Amino acid sequence: MSQGEELMKRLIIIFSASILFLLVLSGCGNLFAPQEVLTANDALVSRSVSSSVYYPDGKFLQMETGILGPEADYSINLPYGWQNFSPGEKNLLIYAHGYVTPDMDFSETEEYALINGALSGFVGQGFAVAYSNYADSGWAVKDGTIRTRQLRGYFVDKFGMPDNIYLCGVSEGAIIAIKLAEQNPELFSGVLAFAGPIGGAKMEFDYILNVRLAFDHFFKEAVKYAASLGSPEAKSLALALGYAEEGEDSSAVDVRPDLLPPSYSSGTVFSANMAALIGSIMMQNPTTVKDETFEMASVAVDGSPLFPAGNWSTNPAFIPEFVFTVTTALWYNIYGTQDLLEKTHGHMPMDNTGIPYIYMDFSNELPSDFEIFEVERFESSRDAEQYLKHWYQPVGGLRIPVVTLHFMRDPAVPYFHETAYKGIEGTDTVMLTQISIDGFGHGTLLNFEGGTLVPKFGITLGHIVGAFNALFAQVPPFSTP
């Protein structure tokens, strides 16, 4: 078997294993049958509320679900008798979820299945846990912020004031959490922000766009060629990216997610079907890595590396990690662009006019010289820039403890967000603790073992628990006003 065929086999194993693990975990969401069902009406709730009492492992657990505001489902889980806990033990954890494509519901995502399993552990430790589905999807920082505040208020009105209220956000939920920490510190005791674009929305969308533009430069023709040979995956990808078989290609922001199978709304499903294709394009020579792969990995935009500097030369897992990274960014480009432009009324919020794009020229896997390359150019409009600034560009000035957790080779939200936020908050801050993990993955650590990327959910959970413990240690026993 050639090295190229072996790589494809490994990539398929990687993503198949990821899906299998997620499917196994998703089956663990409803382990306990309700023993009692009650209904109630509340002025803050637009529809009926269902309340159930569960009996896991001989312990009482009270669960309430309902709808706050316009179509924002919520769930509250708390140990039975939580209101009568001893002073200092009445803790509430509110969870802000990550990005959900516009045509999906949060309850349909892998994240929903995973957090239900993870958050049950907090309930077992005596925490009340609450989270909202939001009323909006896509880039939902605005609505997520409103619904998270609303859920906090509803909980307090219904169950009483906790001694401490912790806010945990992952990915898009992390920037929601940072926004609330900066603008409404009186509502929360402390914040854990995991894998978040906390350098700002514009920084994140610039990254996604720049990966797409670099991919167009190096591999657009290869995708079109694979599509012409009859590859269904290549044809689907070419259509979604706006690559015309004949004539002029569409803009990098004129994407067509509707031309992909509906199941591709899930990033996991998209990666499972597209990673092998993208990997094969990057490995056109079956015995060695194609030079263009290293060249794209070395791209710098306005003098800053687009990908982790030197990763291609020092990391033995470079190829599978890079394939995963590019595939993830393309998924966000395809599914997030239209949603963002709809929220900005079709006006462009990103601007790359006058910005130089360069890469390191390779020949037989050896770097030679830097080359400037031309990309599609976009000019932003002020109102669209203001939208991203308001939803959201962090400003710093923290007054409550914030702990951030980030993998240093995050394929979806690059680690440079952490560096940027440190600059925003200031080096002399006592409220910000940043925990960096030398690893690859977005939300879940992926280790390179036996030639494959293996999801490490247990290790990931350990990092999250460690970060939460660091936050817990900084919050006084009675910090809620």
What does this structure look like?
By secondary structure, the protein is α/β, with parallel strands linked by helices. The protein has 2 domains: 203 residues, no CATH class; 255 residues, Alpha/Beta hydrolase fold, catalytic domain (Rossmann fold). The chain has 13 helices and 16 strands. The strands form 3 sheets. It has a 10-stranded mixed sheet, sandwiched between helices. Strands 10-9-11-12 form a 4-stranded antiparallel sheet. Strands 15-16 form a two-stranded antiparallel sheet. Helix 3 packs across helix 4, helix 5 packs antiparallel against helix 8 and helix 7 packs across helix 10. The longest helix has 28 residues. The radius of gyration is 23 Å and the shape is globular.
Beta-strand percentage range: 15-25%
Report the sheet with the most strands, covering strand number, pairing sense and barrel closure: 10 strands, mixed
- The mean pLDDT is 84
Structurally, the number of domains stands at 2
CATH architecture of the largest domain: 3-Layer(aba) Sandwich
Q: Which class do the helix and strand fractions yield?
A: alpha/beta
Identify low-pLDDT runs.
1-48
The total strand number stands at 16
Quaternary structure type: single chain
CATH superfamily of the largest domain: Alpha/Beta hydrolase fold, catalytic domain
Query: Might you state the CATH topology name of the largest domain?
Result: Rossmann fold
- Rounded radius of gyration (Å): 23 Å
Envelope shape? globular
Strand order of the biggest β-sheet: 1-2-3-4-6-5-7-8-13-14
Helix segment tally: 13
